[in-house]
Structure prediction request, 369 residues.
Amino acid sequence: MVTENSVLSENKEVPIIREIMVATTMSSLFVALFALVASSFRTRAALQAEILALRHQLAVFQKNAPRRLHLHRCDRLLWVVLSRFWSSWRRCLQMVQPNTVLRWHRRAFAWHWTRKSRRLPGRPEVAAHIRGLIRRMSQANPLWGAPRVHGELLKLGIAVAQSTVAKYLPRPRKPPSQTWRTFLTNHLMQTAAIDFFTVPTATFRVLFVFVVLSHERRRVVHFGVTEHPTEEWTMQQMREAFPWDQAPRYLLRDRDAIYGKDFAAMTRDMGMEEVLTAPRSPWQNPFAERLVGSIRRECLDHVMVWNQRSLRRTLQSYFSYYNCASYYPPRYVVENSKPFCCGVGIVVCRLLRRTRSTNLAVASVSSAR
Prediction:
């Protein structure tokens, strides 16, 4: 029969056991397991009283505990095991959130498989004195390669593979490679570009202009104007552009259908190698495209073209100015302007002056009305 004195006597034994455990610095997991074994020899009333006391102490600790608890790995392992085999573990968990325990389990799962799938150690590395010997032999004999050094090491009784010797040989320092900008600059004298562009006339006809541009100074070598361009006409323009042995080594062009097989054979016979741009990629022929833009902005957008003769005369004056500006700075061209360099500029200024005077006259008449 359970009496009050027996309950009190058993409750007095609990602090003594705990002090012994603390004195021996046992882990919290071992304490929990020992308490589980000891509870099997105690009465139900004693267990209920201990549960009440522990819950009261737990409530007090929760009020005064720090915001973040310092838990050991064994503490986490206990709750991970309980979460796997005890369905009501969430209801009794008070010190951390249930999601924290699930996060511990995922971390332990990842650690377990990372440890199982870790890379096994391979061959042992070569000793330091052998690596130093390989480097010294290479420095003393610069013309020796990996096979010769490997053979010398075998004569000394050092058994290493030839691939290992090649791995530890010092790499020769090569001079830095030139940049793409330097490479292209060095080949500007050997490169030329060709392109077509259209010009509408005052009579609603379309003229085609063929230009040949040298990359050395971005100088216009040749141009031609026609209303019906053909492959034969284009081939003749190339012959006129490079009549003798003046053909460049590389010819940059697009994939226009007007450049047929005969055109490619003719350029090959002239000693030129064609460099084709990608389909629908005009930016790969930048100098020619920029020349066409300059012609439109600086010349053709300010004049009205009547026929082939008018366009040819206008472009000839503009290209004279363009080639002159490409050889000298703009200030020199302006200060030492010649008639053939500023013919187009004079025409444009006159047209602008006439347009301005006409606008002023119209404005004055409208204000008088």
